[in-house]
Amino acid sequence: MQATNRFSPVEIEVALELIDIYLNQPQQKDYRFYCAGDESEIVAGYVCFGPTPMTEGTYDLYWIAVDPERQRQGVGDLLLAFVEAEVQREHGRLLMIETSSQPKYDPTHFFYRKHHYREIARIPDFYAEADDRVIYCKKLRNEQALPNNSPKMHPSVARLFAALDSFDFSGLDPEDWDNAKKIIAENRAKSKQEMQKIFELSEQGE
């Protein structure tokens, strides 16, 4: 976190305190930490998130940080996608993020907007004079899984959807990016079933 030059000493101290809680209080469920690394096991970034107390299905993303030497390589995208997947797996509905309005956080704001987070509130001078508290939110969609009795997915269908999952939407306009992802999410299960039938029929020569 120090290497990013974006976090104050107080923020770093708080982050370290949360790590201590996570490591020394394994029974707690408020804070989860995950790291991204490579084959050499060098940490490229990490995230901290957890359920928001006294809510149903709302989660907070407390920290997301990437080593400056590994930025612009998709590490942040992977970490955020992982958090969203974990929240959805636990039937979470909303993912909340808070950040500062200082100019040094402009890339952070762009990053969240690129991933369809919307600014829903701003508290002027919250952290200090001319340093607002900016709150982002994203409503997550829980995808419906295929029935347990569904036939095994055809390898060609699996490869197609694997390629779709890895598609880079970052070059699209944020609104177009959101629409594309929404269409994929809404039609994923139906499309898998229909394409499964197509490949099966083609193999049977029908």
Helix content percent band: 25-40%
Derived structural class: alpha+beta
Mind describing the biggest β-sheet? Answer: 6 strands, mixed
Radius of gyration over C-alpha positions, nearest whole angstrom: 20 Å
Our count of helices gives: 5
Low-confidence stretches: 144-154, 156-161, 163-167
Query: Roughly what fraction of the amino acids lie in strands?
Result: 15-25%
The number of domains: 2
Mean pLDDT, to the nearest integer, reads 76
CATH domain class name of the largest domain: Alpha Beta
Number of strands: 6
Shape: globular
Calculate the terminal CA-CA distance, rounded to whole Å. Answer: 59 Å
Would you identify the CATH architecture of the largest domain? 3-Layer(aba) Sandwich
- Strands across the major sheet, in which order? 1-2-3-4-6-5
The named CATH superfamily of the largest domain: Gcn5-related N-acetyltransferase (GNAT)
- CATH domain fold name of the largest domain: Aminopeptidase
**Secondary-structure element order, N to C:** HEEEHEHEEHH
